[in-house]
Specification:
With 476 residues, this protein is an alpha/beta fold. It has helices at residues 2-7, 51-58, 98-111, 115-131, 145-155, 174-177, 181-195, 217-230, 242-252, 258-264, 282-291, 299-306, 311-316, 328-331, 336-355, 365-372, 374-379, 413-419, 447-465; strands at residues 15-24, 32-41, 44-50, 64-67, 72-75, 77-82, 134-139, 158-162, 203-211, 234-238, 272-276, 294-297, 320-323, 397-400, 426-431, 434-438, 441-442. The chain has 2 domains: 2-75 and 387-442, Roll (Urease, subunit C, domain 1), CATH 2.30.40; 77-379, TIM Barrel, CATH 3.20.20. The strands form 2 sheets. Strands 1, 2, 3, 4, 5, 14, 15, 16 and 17 form a 9-stranded mixed sheet that branches. The chain has an 8-stranded parallel sheet with strand order 6-7-8-9-10-11-12-13. Bound molecules: zinc ion. It holds the Pfam family Amidohydro_1.
Length: 476
């Protein structure tokens, strides 16, 4: 069966019926079919239901039948905050303080990247994304969008690509510090014109704001207006550290941090994807909810460098919260599967820290699964087409094999997906109706080739940027 999927490219109008699966739809009624089937024609889901009904309904069309033998079928997972450009920087800034992280490692690294580096970095990152079940991601803002777009085209998954944009701040590399607001906006409009809706509609272009301390007011408001004009999203790091809020209070005349200021300049809108959003008070949670801002919660990066975001309060207030990995230098693992597990744990742990007592009911598995699927789709403004297995949506889905040491026995399949599943349990992945990974083999590229390219490119890049990672032990 697996060989068939790899070796026989399907004709455009072939009907594929994936059956005998536990189908977790993530639709608005939270339907799960114990013995379900999903029918795909072209790039679209045309039916979802009980296996028996579906097979008899579609038998006259001679469908391509794929028996999943009780494996789980889910919507593709969505990573709403990932720095694909930083994949070649994995391990260059572990266990260092934030200023060293930024000024001595990450900025020199990113400012020395070539277009080819961005391409290779995104390919490498993409392999990890695909292996962790991701069919769509939101780039957090990186270098050379054209390199990222080339890689996404080849990888076969979906992405909202964003350029890293800054026009102010201390310690910026010279090549970034001299950009005018007009240049920042125009270059993004050019990228939009060139790449938006390319790769069979899999690529969308967003506007980027790295963070408020690196943005003038002029840049913030021009970005707000340009995104509105092109009807696209804005991706921005928001309220990451206490110093950021202090900086905003001191220089921008508001009584609390970034969220309060963004409300004042009308940047808090439903097309804003706010990453991290850790240091927000009760009033600001209300502002996020009222304005329909989407929040990307990145649990590993939070524990690594930032702090505990009030996710429970945001969800209670109706904020759409999704999940992100952040970049390799602040997380190391680009696995949304790990983030699902961590999201539940960090927020349970935060209750103890906050209230002095435990509450294991916080962020239950079904909520975490929503964050990684349908909320992810809402966060990237793509929920009419992806995020759940429903008729009319794009065929983005993953097959999970629970028959292994990590998941057996399965008494509660939803909790098992969040607390037990490892990336190794994800065996196949389809995006836009095409198989991208089958039986753990990625079909769209040669992984070994990418590893060699990545090793060489990262070595040259660190040398060019003058970055030296200190030895921790006595190497002989
Ligand atoms: Zn980030």
């Amino acid at each position: 069966m697996e060989e068939e999927r790899q070796q026989q490219p399907l004709k455009e109008n072939t009907v594929i019926v994936l059956h005998d699966a536990l189908v977790v739809t993530m639709d608005s009624q939270n339907r799960v079919y114990r013995n379900g089937a999903v029918v795909v024609r072209g790039d679209t889901i045309v039916a979802v239901g009980q296996s028996e009904d579906i097979i008899s309904q579609f038998s006259s069309l001679s469908p391509h039948l794929i028996n999943l033998h009780g494996q789980f079928l889910l919507p593709g997972l969505i990573n709403t905050h990932v720095h694909t450009s930083q994949q070649l920087a994995r391990g260059i800034a572990d266990d260092v303080d934030l200023l060293t992280w930024l000024h001595d490692r990450i900025w020199p690294y990113e400012s020395n990247m070539t277009e080819e580096d961005s391409y290779i970095s995104t390919l490498l990152c993409g392999i990890e994304l695909i292996r962790s079940g991701v069919t769509c991601f939101a780039e957090a803002g990186g270098q050379h969008v054209s390199g990222m777009a080339r890689a996404v085209e080849r990888l076969g998954i979906r992405a909202c690509l964003t350029q890293s944009v800054m026009d102010a701040g201390e310690g910026l590399p010279a090549s970034w510090a001299n950009r005018s607001v007009e240049e920042c906006i125009q270059s993004q409009k050019d990228l939009y014109k060139k790449h938006h809706n390319t790769a069979d509609g899999r690529i969308r272009i967003w506007f980027g704001l790295r963070q408020i301390m690196n943005s003038t007011d002029h840049l913030l408001t021009e970005t707000r207006d340009a995104a509105k004009e092109l009807n696209t999203g804005i991706h921005m790091h928001v309220a990451e550290i206490p110093y950021e809020n202090k900086h905003v209070v001191e220089r921008r005349g508001v009584d609390h941090g970034t969220v309060t200021y963004l409300e004042k300049i009308k940047l808090l809108q439903s097309n804003l994807l706010a990453a991290h959003t850790v240091w927000v008070d009760e009033n600001e949670v209300g502002l996020l909810s009222k304005s329909g801002v989407k929040v990307s919660h990145c649990p590993a990066a939070a524990m690594h460098m930032l702090g505990f975001a009030p996710i429970r309060e945001m969800i209670d207030a109706g904020v759409c919260v999704s999940l992100g990995t952040d970049g390799a230098p602040s997380n190391n693992r680009m696995s949304i599967v790990d983030e699902m597990y961590l999201a539940s744990l960090i927020n349970k742990g935060r209750e103890v820290f906050k209230k002095g007592t435990t509450d294991p009911t916080v962020l239950p598995a079904e909520t975490v699964l929503e964050m990684a699927t349908i909320n992810g789709a809402k966060s990237v403004l793509w929920d009419k087409e992806i995020g759940s297995l429903e008729v009319g949506k794009k065929a983005d889905m993953i097959v999970v094999n629970p028959y292994s040491w990590s998941m057996m026995p399965v008494h509660d399949c939803i909790s098992s997906l969040v607390y037990c599943m490892r990336t190794e349990n994800i065996t196949s992945l389809m995006c836009n109706g095409h198989w991208i990974m089958v039986d753990k083999k990625i079909l769209t590229l040669n992984e070994e080739e990418v590893m060699i390219m990545a090793k060489n490119a990262s070595h040259d890049l660190l040398k060019r940027a003058g970055i030296r990672v200190p030895s921790r032990m006595h190497f002989l």
